[in-house]
Amino acid sequence: MNRLVTIFVAGFIALMLLSSTVFVVDQRRFAIVFALGEVREVIAEPGLHFKLPPPFQNIIYLDKRILTLDTPDADRFITAEKKNILVDAFVKWRIVEPRLYYVSFSGDERAAANRMSQIIKAALNDEITKRTVREVISGERGAVMDAVRNKVVAEAKQIGVGIVDVRLKRVDYIEQINASVYDRMRAERVRVANELRSTGSAESEKIRADADRQRTVILAEAFREAEKVKGEGDAKASAIYAGAFGKNPEFYKFYRSLEAYRGSFKAKGDVMVIDANSEFFKYFKNPGSK
């Protein structure tokens, strides 16, 4: 019985020793092998590996996946115009030098994130202070991100971190100057609208004046043509009258007298005060007179 217990205990101890010398590296992690507090080996390949049992050798695992550093609150920066803006950015990063990363942060991911935040903030401050608000928001936003990425890549490399991407999520004015910015934008729009209205009014007056001028010219030409046609008609009528009445002058006088009588006595109530023996009533007294 004692022998079985001894064998069982020995087997258990051997199993414990064996399990302490075998470890598995996942494809999503790095494994750092320590020997008496010193880094002995960095294992990046996944699979089954062996080591000495503790305390001779120990294992620490680091995440090799792409991680995201997303600042919870936007940071305030000052532009070249001495205006405050809020910038919210995020970074995609991963561990590329596990040994250097561990030496820098002792494997503490939170410490690494804090250090990365400081690096990003410093890079953003360097770039934003060189540019105006308009350039940061729209004009040179791509250039800002490229410059920040280059600076962050250089700084992160010194702590064993590789930068995959840097992006600006939001660039906005602080609340205190939003109202003034909106007022300035509104004033600019009002100025443009007034300028367009003035231009439109000037064009309208120009078109109206041109139309009035053309109308006057057309009416004058039409009146001239009408008077010309009327004159030609009167001349032809006079020639016809002269030709017709020239053959019998006495009949012409008689016809003109009848027209005069018609024009003078249009209404029954018309009254004329004239000598009855005047030449006007010649054909009333003696219609057959020559």
Biggest pleated-sheet summary: 4 strands, antiparallel
| Basic shape | rod-shaped
Q: Please identify the top-level CATH class of the largest domain.
A: Alpha Beta
Radius of gyration: 56 Å
SS summary, helix count: 8
Helix-strand pattern, N to C? HEEEEEEEEHHHHEHHH
Question: Low-confidence spans: pLDDT under 50, at least 5 residues?
Answer: none
Total beta strand runs: 9
Helix content: 55-70%
Question: Which key features would you list for this structure?
Answer:
290 residues; Tetrahydropterin Synthase, Chain A; 4 domains; 21% strand
Question: Helices and strands in order, then pairings?
Answer:
Blueprint (H helix, E strand, L loop, with lengths): L1 H20 E4 L3 E7 L2 E6 L3 E4 L6 E7 L3 E4 L4 E4 L5 E12 L2 H8 L3 H20 L4 H7 L1 H17 L3 E13 L1 H71 L3 H16 L17 H4 L5
Antiparallel strand pairs: 1-4, 2-3, 2-5, 6-8, 7-8, 8-9
Entry summary:
The protein has 290 residues and is an alpha+beta fold. The protein has helices at 2-21, 98-105, 109-128, 133-139, 141-157, 175-245, 249-264, 282-285, and strands spanning 22-25, 29-35, 38-43, 47-50, 57-63, 67-70, 75-78, 84-95, 161-173.
What does this structure look like?
With 290 residues, this protein is an alpha+beta fold. It has four domains: 2-62, no CATH class; 67-173, Tetrahydropterin Synthase, Chain A (2-Layer Sandwich); 188-245; 248-285, no CATH class. The chain is 56% helix and 21% strand. The protein contains eight helices and nine strands. It has helices at residues 2-21, 98-105, 109-128, 133-139, 141-157, 175-245, 249-264, 282-285; strands at residues 22-25, 29-35, 38-43, 47-50, 57-63, 67-70, 75-78, 84-95, 161-173. The strands form three sheets. Strands 6, 7, 8 and 9 form a four-stranded antiparallel sheet that branches. Helix 3 (109-128) crosses helix 5 (141-157). It is rod-shaped and about 185 Å long. 11% of the residues are buried.
